[in-house]
């Protein structure tokens, strides 16, 4: 499972694991469009992933929706969760501090709790180590 699957890092993770034959469940609600307007819209990337990645399934969900996230994880039982969702703008953080906190801190804690309650032990650090170790093969 990949949060912010339409985003820069999330979409790279989707492509990487799709190429490895993994089934990927992407979570994204295009929040960047809310943050940055039309220029932040990532639907084009979602459509590209859906067209090019055989093992990718998009799930429209706000990562801050704890009940929705738990309800999605329960039937899917992912082997790992790569949490790439973030609110990346310092200027926007000052204007929308509660959104910033919910996206950058609170959602991480409830995702971690969901992972632990389901016995998911792979972390983003594990993923990055694999990506870095194999980066030269992708060039």
Question: How would you describe the overall organization of this protein?
Answer:
The chain has one domain: NAD(P)-binding Rossmann-like Domain (Rossmann fold, 3-Layer(aba) Sandwich), CATH 3.40.50. Strands 3-2-1-4 form a four-stranded parallel β-sheet, with helices on one face. 25% of the residues are buried. The protein is an alpha/beta fold and 139 residues long. The longest helix is centred in the C-terminal third of the chain and has 21 residues. The mean pLDDT is 82.
Mean pLDDT: 82
In CATH terms, the superfamily is NAD(P)-binding Rossmann-like Domain
Order of helices and strands: EHEHHEHEHHHH
- Fraction of residues in β-strands: 5-15%
List the helices and strands and how they pair.
Elements: E1 2-3, H1 8-19, E2 24-28, H2 31-36, H3 43-52, E3 56-60, H4 66-76, E4 82-83, H5 90-95, H6 97-117, H7 124-133, H8 135-138
Helix pairs in contact: 4-6
In short:
The chain is built from eight helices and four strands. With 139 residues, the protein is α/β, with parallel strands linked by helices.
Key descriptive features of the protein:
139 residues; alpha/beta; 4 strands; 58% helix; globular
